User: Fold these one by one.
Assistant:
Number 1:
Amino acid sequence: MDDARAHRIGVNEALFRAVNEQIEGLNRRLDETDAMEVVCECGDGQCVERLPISMHDYERVRKDPRRFVIAPGHDVPEVETVLERHDRFHVVEKIHDVPERIAEETDPRS
């Protein structure tokens, strides 16, 4: 995979993560702390899938800036590996240096 495509994937994932952080913040303000629905954090800039996830699972994923919540089948093996498979979502971790660096540099929790 060329670095330009890897960069686009990393930027898209970071953007979707930022959106989900806003959704998570709204859920906390509304005291809806059991579950939430997030947008898929895959590298496809056109993806609009919404994924149900418990707040516990979401917080667990957010502890590592290289990890993202995606829809099943949306992984890009050249840049990430699937760590967890759940019915409605998967958790991936970046393994390619370009999207991994973007993920760490844009982590809103760091």
Number 2:
Amino acid sequence: MKRILLDTNVYGKLVEDTFIFPLLLDQKTCNNLVVYGTDVIRKELRAISKKATDKKGQKIRLYTLYVYDNLITKANHTLRVNNFIDGLAQLYMDEYKRSGGGVGEAEIKNDFLIVACATLHNLDIVISDDKRTMLSTAALAAYKWVNQKQGFQNPNYMHYITFRDKLLKKGGI
């Protein structure tokens, strides 16, 4: 069983690619995957405009929240940010800046909080489609360096398209 965390942007991908959501639910039902969320991700989903619609005219905000709530079904699968997680995210930020990361703190802070939650709860995989911030070379190096220095196991990071391909092949994640 793999314990995974889907970045906020993955929920948008699940809205666009409706074939994957049932496969993901099936993997969850078969106990192959446990999907975790965070209060940070849910807040980002709630911040989507109420007027935004997809190509079919569905309200994106409602559908992403529906997908989230159906994947994160147990209260203990919502990871809360606390002072320790906030501190780890700040260490990521400091290392990211030191190594020349170019995205500003306001834009990348939530990504670091999400990764800190996954790290401190020993999740196996963080899945994202965000190559510019969360999965950038500088961010990945910062996670690795800080986690190694702090004695934490670094989660594996997977791009959404790789995750999607693995679900479609039913070979497991």
Number 3:
Amino acid sequence: MTYQVIIDDNFHYMDPEHQRVGPRFATLEEAVAYCRRVVDEFLIENYRFGMPSYELLTQYLLYGEDPFVRGGEGGVPFSARDYAGTWIREVYGEWQFAVCNRDKPLLSRLIATALAPVVRWRIGRRLHRSAAWSATSVRRGRD
């Protein structure tokens, strides 16, 4: 059984003309890991120093890529939108995610700027873990 990754464009959500076919994978775990990397790349590339969490999530929901997996029996337990929200909560911290919102733009910007070094450190830590995972999987594939 193979698992096919399909990638929607959030800017053209549910428009089949803007949907593209990604790679196929032998296991569900590999397919979901690929989907996570697609979301990770968008979030990392679009993060700006001092950006409040709600702005990054809004950027993703409006312009990011929404990968999903087809194949296997039944539905595939992965939602790129849920994953992006979880990723942002982990990187920004639950407290900052809860406090920063559109209703308080000045407070949100001040908090995001004050905590930006922590957010950057957490993003760097995620990148480091991701790179270690990729290197390990590449080595395993060559064995």
Number 4:
Amino acid sequence: MARGERSELGRDDWFRNTSWNLEIEATFMARLCRARDKSQYLRIQASYLTRVAPEAALRLLAHYFQLGDHFDQAQAFVERAEAYITLGNLDAALNSYEAALERERVYPQLQTRAYLDFPLLIVMRQLSELYSRAMEILDATQSRLMFPIDRYHAHGIRALILDEWGKREEAKNNAALALAAASETQSGFRYHQGVGLVPTASNDLAYRLEAIAQTRH
């Protein structure tokens, strides 16, 4: 949306803008001033901007954290990490993911995908000094793997790390498990069969897993 254009969101969606400019910000802040639960609106709006307007997302999240402790704080840390990734600030993103996991430890009532997104960032950026940390996180959260996409990422991360560590057979087995999860067409949940499936795997992770799975020993 170009500068000066008006948001087309309805009255109930004023905190879900998918673009950002001075006019949209002014409208949002005016509505926020009248809102009762300001923290939730700040976090939700920031979540829509982490990839398209990361600086704005970080400003909104800074405001969110200034308002004190909230039940969805772990998710706010995840969204802050996503904004930092968009900006290329890898160290800040890693710290934000660690903060999300720490928040989940002390407030387990709300859990996020930090347990997978954090290790995935580590392996995709080939941060070898953090591979042990990634495996530690995966080992501690195995019981949380509910959907095919969860298993795809968990086994995929393991495959890449084990391959780097020279454990080829274990890496190959995990790559096969990840690719099997990617091929699943039902979630296993009776009323939500389409939830949590893996989108068409045509990204760098899929290519690397296929190469590992086809390795001969």
